[in-house]
Amino acid sequence: MIANPYQPLNATIIEVIDESPTIKSFVIEPEQPFTFDTGQFIELTLPGRGEAPFTPSSSPALTERMEVTIMKAGHVTGLLHECNPGQAVGIRGPLGHGYPVDAFVGKEVYIIGGGVGLAPIRSLLLTLIDRIGEFHRVVCRFGARTPEDFIYKPALFGPWQKINGLEITCTVDQANGQWSGPVGVVTEIVKPDDVDVNEAVAVVCGPPVMMKYVTLRLVEHGFAPERIYLSMEKNMSCGIGKCGHCMIGRYYACKDGPVFTFAQIRKYPNIWD
Amino acid sequence: METVFISRFELLLDALAQEMEVYAPRCGAESSTFVRYDPKAPDGVAFNPARLCTPAKEFLFPLRERAAAFPHPLEPEAARPFAVMGLKDCDLKALRILDCVFLEDDEFRDPFYAARREAMFIVSSDCTEPTDSCCCVLFGGQVFPESGFDLNLSRIRDGYLVQPGSPKGAMFLSRYLDRFAGVPSAALTERQHERQKTTEQIERLNAAYRLDRKVDEIVQAGQDVPLFDEMAAECVECQACTRICPTCHCFYLFDTLDTDIFARMKMWDSCVRRDFARVAGGANPRQILGDRTRHRLLHKFVYFLERHGLYMCVGCGRCIDACAGGLDLRELLTQLNRERVSKGQG
């Protein structure tokens, strides 16, 4: 860690990928190799404009460059969407605690994601795919508003469908002509017998309302709150557990999270808002 | 080095001013604060009988400072030595709390805070006349410091006793032996007597607010009562309570563009502000004011205690003086305590 935790490391955007009408991925090359654990996050600075927290969507195995998938949602993300390759940026991190992948070994990993929530999940998936033989099964349930809104479409509907030990089902709120899969919100394809609820671990990432109802559904199915891992989106500003913006009860989402078990945070007020 | 005696406050001030910048108390009829001491123009600087209106956090954690720069990184520099006089036990305990956040974090130290903390020479003093809002005794505080200072002053009839509390303080005294005298006979007994008298005074001031359970238990048990929402009805969201609080330390990072360089400013923020916890997507866990007032007290008395073993409140009463809505922390806690008792949780 550099001595000044507020100072970003210089980096450059080297590629911009259109993922969906409102989401782009940015390939970023840091000035020096950058390591992180899957699920940890970074603060991405657009110099002079501001910074915002993102969980890298690339594999932690790559240290020379990383990918960050960004939905146009606010001030900084809006400006980032205007950026082209060559743009100077800054990154701080890695920050917080990610997914405890070693604790998933030998188990069924049940991953439920929605919208841009697939970004952290992609990094996790790439990690799991590298070690796919170590897990009992990896079962994914992904949702998007329409087929166009899915991000990572080439991998999602291509090579990932053919990996042994990885099962992916996608649903959309609204179908179009080509869609042959399920239609409905992602909770509708979360079934009690998808995995063994007494043994499996669940990973949930998506818009707040989706995370809420999926988590409640999992609990209803018998999942222990200790085995439901949530990637919490809060207003992480300093990223180092001091500025107070991202507090969830006693926890700082930036320092203690952003990945929490439901058991850790369920007693605190308004966690889904 | 043992405790020594000085006849006049200025003798110590001038000795300090030979070595470093000195910030000393100035008390007016309406307010009191720290001012830069100039030996040639003392300008009303004098011993303060109680904590000042303004907290000492600004010396370590300024309202606004540069925290990063681009493209050339900002390297934290050592701070020049400075002395702050007139801190009371509550102020020292508040620094202890800020240290937990900015200095003693297991992973991340704030280098700007650390540099200033290292450079700060602390001269505290015994309280001799608590203000109407002083309530340290409700939160485990007292009217005289026992640790956390370099030097501590106790006012007695003919002057002041100066007690060193650190190697830095003792070294300082040893450099100015000619200005100080030995402790007069019976002076220590007199100090003891003064401390006792002030303690009784502050106890009397707070007799009506005595709580029969620990504050964290009261706040924890009371978090569901509508009192916080009623409190919110009086709050005008001016954020004065968090600005004036010696322990509140929330801040935000704000990037500014200045031609081709950018500066990242670290500025005080307040959890009372409506959009404080709002995320870019629009979600806001504490959009309702009652949820923010509730969170503020839970942070102070429950969450901080869980993390650091201390209340994030020292009972200085500044928030009581500053509140534009007339809210009084002591009354709120007393009321929460009553609700708890009436609900049969006692």
Write structural notes for this entry.
The complex is a heterodimer of chains A (273) and B (346). Chain A has 273 residues and is α/β, with parallel strands linked by helices. Chain A folds into 2 domains: 87 residues, Elongation Factor Tu (Ef-tu), domain 3; 131 residues, 3-Layer(aba) Sandwich (Rossmann fold). In chain A, the strands form 3 sheets. Chain A has a 6-stranded antiparallel β-sheet with strand order 4-3-6-1-2-5, with helices on one face. In chain A, β12 and β13 form a beta hairpin. With 346 residues, chain B is of the alpha/beta class. Chain B folds into 2 domains: 204 residues, no CATH class; 128 residues, no CATH class. Chain B contains 11 helices and 10 strands. In chain B, β7 and β8 form a beta hairpin. The longest helix of chain B is centred in the C-terminal third of the chain and has 20 residues. Chain B is globular and about 65 Å long. Classes of the chains: A alpha/beta (273), B alpha/beta (346). Chains A and B meet through β4, α1 and β12 of A and β4, β9, β10 and α9 of B.
Offer a quick outline of the entry.
The complex is a heterodimer of chains A (273) and B (346). Chain A has 273 residues and is of the alpha/beta class. Chain A has helices spanning 75-81, 118-130, 153-156, 208-221, 262-265; strands at 9-20, 23-30, 41-46, 50-54, 66-71, 88-95, 108-114, 137-144, 166-172, 201-205, 228-231, 247-248, 251-252, 259-261.
